[in-house]
């Protein structure tokens, strides 16, 4: 009966994709709304890391307890990460620390409608390039056409804000930060595929790295007055909310579901499945935040979404492999 109740790999992959899309959509809208609620971007990064660590670090310690009791050397970062040091450092720097720092700072310069296009929209572009360089995956002509649509959409959105820089605008800074954050997350997804990482352990590892590196640096810089913080001035309910949603939701839940999706569909196709995120988050920004949708954003959103969907419909899904086989085939 227990075996009969187990879900197939396809079912788990589809469910993980749905959960990831929903959380990513909420992440964009809520992160932009948080810019007017007292906390600074680096404060939100701290809340995200601490919120995720409160669940994942004790979980990782409990997961490795039997191996430690048996005298085995497991994990890294003083037993906080269940993965070896090399994948922990690589995945943790890209997906656990740098992505959060870049993305949350971007929301303080650019609206959520820009993030809707540039954060999830440019993922297939960066992931395809990195998968080609690192994993030696071939890029079909059909996929190249889809990526061309994505590039055009990104140029329409980011190009307009770059032109505003000559008039004293700062939106272009947020657009560049969004593009850089998207590139970091693409690097993380390729790292997951390259090492054949388990979804839960990978999320634990990037959180452990972020906790060990960021928390001491943040506390040291703020105590010395070298970095500003509004943690003591902001309402405790706001800090708690950010820790719950940004940490437990955006990191713990969506981190596991995204990694599981990458394991099943592969890095390029997984990022293309997120085609619904730009449209849903842009509509959410208009409805909940009152942001305008100018013609260049509408056209850019349409091009990016079409490019993602074009690639999804034309690419055949890869055969699902066990974790060990996947790691060997991509090494």
**Percent of residues in beta strands:** under 5%
Separation, N- and C-terminal Cα atoms: 37 Å
Amount of helix: over 70%
Which regions are unreliable across 5 or more consecutive residues at pLDDT < 50?
1-5, 314-331
Largest sheet: number of strands, sense, barrel closure: none
**Count of helical segments?**
15
Q: What is the number of beta strands?
A: 0
Helix-strand makeup class: mainly alpha
Spatial shape: globular
Question: Overview of this structure, please?
Answer:
- The protein starts with a helix and ends with a helix.
- It has one domain (10-321).
- The model is unreliable at 1-5 and 314-331 (pLDDT under 50).
- With 331 residues, it is mainly alpha-helical.
- The chain contains 15 helices and no strands.
- The longest helix has 30 residues, at 236-265.
Task: List strands and helices in order, with pairings.
Blueprint: H1 2-5, H2 9-33, H3 41-63, H4 65-69, H5 85-106, H6 112-118, H7 123-135, H8 141-164, H9 171-195, H10 199-223, H11 236-265, H12 267-273, H13 276-289, H14 295-314, H15 323-330
Helix pairs in contact: 2-11, 2-13, 3-5, 3-10, 3-11, 5-9, 5-10, 6-13, 6-14, 7-9, 7-12, 8-9, 8-14, 10-11, 11-12, 12-14, 13-14
